């Protein structure tokens, strides 16, 4: 009984430390991302920005290791991959966000954009169709339908040009 009590007490005492560490890594990752994107990239210091992005990815992955359901870490991971022109990895991160919180309609659209960037047109359309299930807003539904139509037109035009 004493061992159980001590174990529970330790878990209670250590929980804030784990949360603080998770928050710290998330904030460090955000800082690296922002430094690379807002400070270094506009000054055409791409090599340094890439180093910042690499550090950001490392920090976000630390958060995910400790707390695999942290949608903010996945969202920022998607942003980092997106600015590094890694659309498949960005899409994967954004899709994890919507898996964790299906109500994130905007994130479905971000995922679809990245899927298009990695030439996964059918999956982009499926992702947008899934987004429609999580909103009743007619304006949003109409915009999503426009996006789907544009993807289909683009895909068909690309197939025709690839044949030529």
Automatic annotation (TrEMBL):
Keyword Signal on entry: yes
Signal peptide residue numbers: 1-20
Keywords tagged on the record: Repeat, Signal, TPR repeat
Top-rank lineage group of the source organism: Bacteria
TPR repeats: 71-104
UniProt keyword annotation of Heme present: no
Family matches, as PROSITE patterns: TPR (PS50005)
Annotated protein name in UniProt: Uncharacterized protein
Organism: Sulfurovum riftiae
């Amino acid at each position: 009984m004493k061992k159980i009590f001590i174990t529970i007490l330790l878990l209670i005492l250590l929980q804030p430390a784990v949360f603080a560490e998770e928050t710290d890594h998330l904030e460090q990752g955000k800082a690296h991302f922002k430094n690379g994107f807002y400070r270094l990239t506009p000054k055409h210091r791409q090599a340094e920005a890439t180093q910042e992005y690499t550090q950001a990815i490392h920090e976000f992955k630390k958060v995910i290791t400790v707390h695999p359901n942290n949608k903010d870490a996945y969202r920022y991971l998607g942003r980092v991959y997106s600015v590094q022109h890694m659309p498949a990895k960005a899409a994967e991160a954004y899709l994890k966000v919507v898996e964790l919180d299906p109500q994130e309609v905007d994130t479905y659209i971000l995922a679809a954009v990245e899927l298009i960037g990695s030439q996964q047109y059918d999956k982009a359309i499926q992702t947008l169709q899934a987004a429609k299930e999580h909103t009743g807003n007619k304006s949003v539904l109409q915009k999503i339908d426009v996006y789907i139509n544009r993807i289909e037109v683009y895909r068909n035009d690309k197939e025709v040009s690839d044949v030529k």
